[in-house]
Amino acid sequence: MDSAERATAVVTELFESWYTPMLRFAARSTQNEQVAEEIVQEAFTELYKELRSGRKIQHPKAWAMRVIRRRIWREYIAPPTASLDTLAPPPAAMPVEHSELSMLLNQLTPRETEAVLLRAAGLGYAAIAKELGIATGTVSALLARALQRMQVAAKAASHSAQSRRGER
User: Fold this and answer.
1) Of 38, 50, 40, 37, which Cα lies nearest the Cα of 10?
2) In the chain, N or C: fewer CB atoms in 10 Å?
3) Using the 8-state DSSP alphabet, how is residue 155 labeled?
4) pTM surpassing 0.70?
5) Phi, psi (5° rounding) for residue 26?
6) pLDDT digits over 108-132, tens only?
7) Domains of the chain, earliest start first
């Protein structure tokens, strides 16, 4: 199998099994579905080009997620270097629908959110550790703290909703 056929096979398999979770991750991170779609599609295009050039990529899913995370970080999370007066407003698009899950994720630190979203995208602890540049044990601690924070927030939201119903 030549590099073009191998690249096509790897990217097709990854696309069919991981496009939707990767898109959810990018949409949650950017709060913009249209931008998220563009970022994920570009990651698959870059993966194809790298594989086609003959580069050996051991873990294509982790590689693609790294490309997605880096672009999101560069363009949507990293502090801008220009002054606020010179920045253009973000492109208008359909925002990601706010849900209870979004409310719960907003209770987390950025690092905890990243770990939770990577885990939700199907990455294992070792892959998350490699992606975030931290120890596997730290991933475990991050996810445990995140779960605890989300449980507390969910309980508080439940109590708040019950008290609002009781006031009526």
Assistant:
1) 50
2) C
3) H
4) no
5) -65, -40
6) 888 888 888 888 887 888 888 888 8
7) 1-97 (no CATH), 98-168 (1.10.10.10)
